[in-house]
Design goal:
Elements lengths: L1 H8 L4 H9 L6 H4 L7 E2 L5 E5 L4 H6 L6 H12 L12 E5 L13 H18 L3 E5 L1 H8 L5 H4 L3 E4 L2 E6 L2 H6 L4 H16 L2
Parallel strand pairs: 2-3, 2-4, 4-6
Antiparallel strand pairs: 1-3, 5-6
The structure holds uracil (URA).
Length: 198
């Protein structure tokens, strides 16, 4: 029963959650993946950044955002004093909605999201971030249960399970649409202000 599975996942501690994801065969993506991509960073960080799904580089390395979009993400995070290699209030935990790469980077399918998102929910519950940055349509849909476009959701503070959520463009989108980088900077500033006023 799917509800049993979600309840089991919701009771796992961090190491068991990692092991469960590494062995996951809950959807067809397990057949084409090279590595699962659990997440990276300090699991007690104040900031949590959530993307869509591993791409080619991430699938090879088993780490999120290590390709071109990840380099842009790292630069943006550095600019606000955050890094995946630091801890606590300078740290950030980075994860995706899907833990396995969709073939040829196609969009996640609804049933893949349904099977995989209990892992993300448990990650958020265990990290207990002070702020979540939801990057792109799939992170936003999963956390906020809305189909509203990013452009209409950004610029204000949303909530997921009580945690403030800032909606912003996915860095892969920014690579194709650099004119929207200014809006993403504004979103990062809103995230900083929101953490400071919590
Ligand atoms: N895009 C994502 O959404 N996540 C990654 O890990 C890499 C690219």
């Amino acid at each position: 029963l799917p509800d049993d599975r979600a309840a089991r996942i919701a009771a796992l501690d961090w190491p068991s959650l990692q092991e469960t994801v590494a062995a996951c065969e809950a959807c067809g993506l397990c057949r084409s993946r090279r590595h699962t991509v659990f997440g990276v960073g300090d699991s007690q960080a104040d900031w949590m950044v959530i993307g869509e799904a591993p791409g080619e580089q991430e699938d090879l390395k088993g780490e999120p955002f290590v390709g071109p979009a990840g380099q842009l993400l790292d630069r943006m995070l550095h600019a606000v004093g955050r890094s995946r290699t630091e801890g606590g209030e300078r740290g950030v935990y980075i994860a995706n909605v899907l833990k396995c790469r969709p073939p040829a980077n196609r969009n996640p399918q609804p049933e893949e999201v349904v099977r995989c998102e209990p892992y993300l929910r448990r990650q958020v519950a265990l990290v207990q971030p002070k702020i979540i940055l939801a990057m792109g349509r799939f992170a936003v849909q999963s956390l906020l249960r809305t189909d509203e476009p990013i452009g209409r959701l950004r610029g204000r503070v949303h909530r997921y399970e009580g945690v403030p959520v800032i909606v912003t463009y996915h860095p892969a989108y920014l690579l194709r649409n650099p004119a929207d980088k200014a809006k993403s900077w504004a979103d990062l500033c809103l995230a900083m202000d929101t953490v400071d006023t919590q």
